[in-house]
Design goal:
Rossmann fold; about 260 residues; about 25% strand; binds adenosine-5'-diphosphate; 6-stranded mixed beta sheet; alpha/beta; binds magnesium ion; 5-stranded antiparallel beta sheet
Length: about 260
């Protein structure tokens, strides 16, 4: 089976600062990957490299088995079959909800009837029915974020990139939306590459967790595997395991959830 995305030894520096130092990662169709790491560890840079907004200094990025980016060449972002949702939604404020969702399909020159049917389906899926004629400033934060997700899904991308998609929402909405998003993406079979600094968001969305530290991957595994057996003290800390961290400090070894030393 060809993987949707393959990242091979990808490195990126800005000036003298190495932001990514040789990242390797493969994503299969239908997987939801959550990259979890502290602010500044290189998550957004990794997403920008996958989207084609930045070029790697070394290594390769393959999409459906074909090289999309290397030091010597770049496939244009719009040819990658990728859509991205950002923290700040980036909706067009002068366009209605309908026009925002339909935007990509109109550029793709689909006919009006098909576009109307797709927008109606997405509006129903994302609980936006009745809001189609509103402008983004007339929506709540959660509604705006759902429009951004609907717009990104509308062109049926091979891969959805989500960069801290819920950070601007209040606590209650974040909790609701992360469960809803995970359910929706599973139902649609969307392949998702999601980055966040919030362990609870990563845990509620991910099939597979990728823990990053200072431009490198510290650990990959199911959320349960990472939780039970963090690969390092910093992974344990990131996963919110204060008691285990103290135990590790004493033993210098790995510890299981609940603090039992292995
Ligand atoms: P994260 O998303 O994990 O918070 P980023 O990928 O945004 O991390 O940033 C990683 C590091 O790279 C930071 O130190 C940041 O300041 C730096 N950086 C990111 N983008 C640029 C850029 N376009 N030019 C220079 N430095 C950058
Ligand atoms: Mg970021």
């Amino acid at each position: 089976m060809t993987s949707i995305l393959e990242i091979r030894q990808v490195g990126k520096s800005y000036g003298k600062q190495e932001v990514l130092g040789g990242v390797d990662l493969t994503v299969q169709a239908g997987e939801i990957i959550s990259v979890l790491g502290p602010s500044g560890c290189g998550k957004s840079t990794l997403l920008q490299l996958i989207a084609g907004l930045q070029q790697p200094d070394r290594g390769e990025i393959l999409l459906r088995g074909k090289v999309a980016a290397s030091r010597s060449g770049m496939l244009a972002p719009e040819k990658r079959g990728i859509n991205m949702v950002f923290q700040d939604y980036a909706l067009w404020p002068h366009m209605t909800v309908f026009e925002n969702i339909a935007y990509g399909m109109r550029r793709g020159k689909q006919d009006q009837t098909a576009i109307r049917a797709s927008v109606a389906e997405l509006a129903a899926l994302l609980r936006l029915e009745g809001l189609e004629q509103r402008l983004p400033p007339q929506l709540s934060g959660g509604q705006q974020q759902r429009v951004a997700i609907a717009r990104a899904l509308a062109t049926k991308p091979d891969l959805m990139l989500l960069d801290e998609p819920l950070s601007n929402l209040d606590m209650q909405l974040r909790v609701e939306m992360r469960t809803e998003m995970a359910y929706l993406f599973k139902k649609l079979g969307t392949t998702v590459f999601h980055v966040t600094h919030d362990p609870e968001e990563a845990f509620s969305m991910a099939d597979r967790l990728v823990i990053m530290r200072e431009g490198a991957i510290d650990q990959t595994g199911t959320p349960q595997q990472c939780w039970r057996l963090p690969a390092s003290a910093s992974a344990a800390k990131l996963l919110g395991a204060g008691n285990r961290l103290r135990a590790m400090g004493r033993s210098g070894g790995r510890v299981a959830a609940g603090g039992a030393e292995l």
